[in-house]
Amino acid sequence: MTATIIRNGRVIDPANKRDEIADLYIADEKIAEKSEIRDQKSEIEEIDVRNLIVAPGLIDVHVHLREPGFSHKETIESGARAAAAGGFTTVVCMPNTSPAADNPSTIAWIKDRAAAVACVNVLPTGAISKNLAGEELASIGSLAQAGVVAITDDGHCVQNHEVMRRAVEYARMVGVPVLDHCQDYDLVGNGVVHEGYWSTLLGLPGWPAMGEEAMVMRNVLLAELCDHHIHCQHVTTAGSVRLIREARARGVKISGEVCPHHIALTDEAIQNFDTNYKMNPPLRSQTDVDALLEGIADGTLSVLCSDHAPHADFEKEVEFDAAPFGIIGLETELGLFLDLLVHKHRKIDIGRLIEMYTIESARLLGIDAGTLSAGAKADVTLIDPELEWTVRVDQFQSTSRNSPFDGWKLKGRAVRTIVGGKTVWKL
Ligand SMILES: [Zn+2]
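A: This is the predicted complex of the input protein with zinc ion.
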């Protein structure tokens, strides 16, 4: 038996409503009681973490690890390292790989690969439709059997409401949540930036807020009709926040997540045509950012995540219209959210931030993670909430460098990441 004692930290474990200065005990791969440590005679590692926060290992429910098929952008191994460096012990990867994760053998490949090379827990999602084409349903039952934690066509969106209805009904039958990238293709057309002042001024095709809101509304109606959970991915508009807030108040099983770039930046940032500000959904207006902040503050938006979307330099270094959407996020998201939500705008306290990254995410997916209860797997993140640091993209663990946050000064970051009792990353 190996044991670790993490001494004198501020233990924040929202699942157990704990926030106190205490010691945390780890025996082998699990969180332990103090008595279990005293009883055993083998070597004990002690770490003094005065002034640090001891949190359950953080979970990111929305990342793209790009394998199989696009290992020049990221691999499961490098993506997992980036997650560890960002303070994440569990990541949920999206199915828009090549081949697409729309079948049990691709899921098995991802799980095998992760077991062999990933330093954090990697949980795959399966596609809603075959090849994410939105036409024919993937075999959702077989995907659930293969161990997906959710289904989603992320990057794409099922347009046919009848197909989506059957997907939600199957998902309910096999007990997995539905995650949806909300985008109405007709309304969005070839839009690349938020439809508004800046799209007009710069002459770039607009991606209207309603292109997201129409699908959020569709999902509210389907969640209600099918009595099953639908989670709206990367919510960006004031209208979406309002729709989700109203539906939740009525008891509809609907939820939403927020990515840091959608509150850190507005569409004003696109005026230099830098493709690191091109994402889907796009950066929105200040009014939308304010509504997202209110949605986070009042609990309407319950999950934080990155939408980590690596692309190689040669892919991003093209004209704005032609560049792929998305930015990397695993190594900046905790710093950005701590800096913006907790320190700068004071919208939530650090306990709620940890709750959104742990038990809220675990509850959404129905997974056994996100707590520091005795007997739980020893996934732990140590956080220095006051540490001031500068983002240096060239030092990132990710294979890609597509981030608009290079050079940003942030307050707060993870300083050590522990997975199953083993330190997998340390500042
Ligand atoms: Zn998406």
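Residues 128 and 167 are 7 Å apart (CA to CA). The first strand starts at residue 3 and ends at 13.
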